[in-house]
Write a structure and sequence with these properties.
The chain has 3 helices and 2 strands; from the N terminus they run αββαα. The protein is mostly helical and 222 residues long. Strands 1-2 form a two-stranded antiparallel ribbon. It starts with a helix and ends with a helix.
Amino acid sequence: MSSRIEQIIEEIEEYIDSCKYQPLSTTKIVVNKEEIEELLRELRLKTPDEIKRYQKIISNKEAILDDAQKKAEMMLADAQARAQDLVNQHEIMQQAYAQANETVNSANRQAQDILDSATNDANNIRLSAIAYTDEMMANIEQILSDTLEDAGTKYRLAVDALQSCLGVVTQNRAELAPQTAQAAAMNSSYRAPEPASVSGDLDVDDDVDEEDDDVMDDLDEV
């Protein structure tokens, strides 16, 4: 809506346009003094009110601008506070992430240390077990070797004793062979003689018995 001053100014302009030019002039016009004075008087009366109204509008505008400025500053402060909170939260999150990573890394290092220690202990126990087993097997090997050697020696002594006995028996049979042949021949021609008359045979048997006793003694020693 236009103000009254603007309307009066428009009326003055329309009035001037409606006036007639003076004769022989294109710039000068003839006006009605009373009408133009009336318009000017009303203009003068309205000007203070309009000025006051404009001043009030300007004042309200300044108040609106101040209020808007305050609201803008409040919004800016709130935005800055929110941004600072986000920054703080980000820093807190970063610190939390850093602490979490440090905790995880520390746990990994401790777990690796425990694993390495357990591995070393297991290797030491394994090496100790191998050494102990090897020592026990070496002792068993020595015992078996000694036993085998002792058994071989006794076996050889027994074989030697048996061979000696066999030699004695073979020799005794060889010594008895002539007499056995003679006895066989006599049995085919005559009756067998009395046992008491064969004194030589008794002597041979006594020698065989003595040799057999010696062989048995050798076996007992083995």
